[in-house]
Amino acid sequence: MSTGLEITGLATGYRKRAVVQGVTLPVLKAGGVYSLIGPNAAGKSTLLRALAGLQPATGSVTLDGTELMGKPLADWARRVTYMPQTLPQGVSLNVLESVISALRASPMEGLNSSEAIKQHAVDVLERVGIIELAMRNLGHLSGGQRQLVSLAQVLARNPQVLLLDEPISALDLKHQFRVMRLVQELARERQMIVMVVLHDLSIAARWSDGIVMLAQGRVVASGTPGQAITPASLAEVYGVQARIEYCDRGQMQVMIDDEAMA
Ligand SMILES: Nc1ncnc2c1ncn2[C@@H]1O[C@H](COP(=O)(O)OP(=O)(O)OP(=O)(O)O)[C@@H](O)[C@H]1O
Fold first, then answer.
1. What is the pTM of this model?
2. What InterPro entries has UniProt attached to this entry (predicted)?
3. Burial (Cβ within 10 Å: 0-12, 13-18, ≥19) of residue 187
């Protein structure tokens, strides 16, 4: 039996249109952060939704040896939490209430009283750095603040597998850094498997144990950041001429010089 998340021959799409076409990956390990990268419309969100059990799919998805494919949504939801790209809005809840209601929607072991649930929600807001927003109405927040609330809602649930769809797209530089650091810390502490969709490849390289590069629903490159993100894969997948440079602290930077020759 293999431990971790194993994805084999995963295919899914919409009506008759195939969008994700036979994705097979090396086992994703507990405690690891894996970035899913690729151009617009590559199928990244569709793949995440299939991994959350929200999208009919074929193939195999096993978690610690247990097959999830074909199981009822409740079985997926107990193990896998998905944060969509869309931000919470239009509800007349304050931030703390919204985290509490996310917790009530999928009860967690050890949180048996209203007081325990509230304390856990407060702890998560502190950890995400938005405790000062606790009493603010969701509808009155900025886009970046709503994205942080969305993250607090999913982190509160402490799943085995966390799927994050562009969780830092609305955030400023400091908050991008904080969120990626927090996600990595929580993956290590809780031995969670995190798969995160990112468009900034330098950020993906910095914070990921593994990279999966998707194009037209297929895996084009995978492995460590240095293995997957190369001038050749960037030319093939994104159509750009790129250089990979390492700064004096050893961090990988992706520099784009031009569009690639056709
Ligand atoms: N609900 C849907 N119904 C029909 N087609 C869809 C639906 N959602 C997505 N698609 C199509 O599936 C393809 C993949 O979309 P998806 O959102 O998975 O891409 P993505 O890689 O996440 O893109 P982006 O980086 O732009 O967010 C696109 O061609 C899109 O038009």
1. 0.95
2. AAA+_ATPase, ABC_transporter-like_ATP-bd, ABC_transporter-like_CS, P-loop_NTPase
3. buried
